[in-house]
C-alpha cells in the first residue's frame, strides 16, 4: 500500500508539472523538452531550434522562472 501511495503522489507531481509546462510558450516548452527529456546540451538545442546560444540560455532562464512562479 505504501508503494501505491508513492506512485500516486509521483503521478500527481507529474500531472502538475505537465500542466505548468503547458502554460509556457511553445518555444519554452520545446527548450524544456529538449534539455530535460531528450537530455540535449545547449549547443544541440541551438542547432535544432535555429537560434543562438544566448537565446537558448534566456529561454531556459525565463522558462524556469515561470515554472517556479507557478509552483508557489
Can you walk through the features of this model?
The protein is mainly α and 72 residues long. Helix content is 83%, strand content 0%. The chain has four helices and no strands. It has helices spanning 2-22, 26-37, 42-49, 53-71. Helix 2 (26-37) packs across helix 4 (53-71) and helix 3 crosses helix 4. The radius of gyration is 15 Å and the shape is elongated. The N and C termini lie far apart (30 Å).
Distance separating the two termini = 30 Å
Number of strands: 0
Structural class: mainly alpha
**Uncertain residue segments:** none
Count of discrete alpha- or pi-helical segments spanning 4 or more residues: 4
The biggest beta sheet reads: none
Task: Summarize this structure briefly.
The chain is mainly α and 72 residues long. The chain has helices at 2-22, 26-37, 42-49, 53-71.
Keywords:
single chain; 0% strand; 83% helix; mainly alpha
Chain-wise SSE layout:
Blueprint: H1 2-22, H2 26-37, H3 42-49, H4 53-71
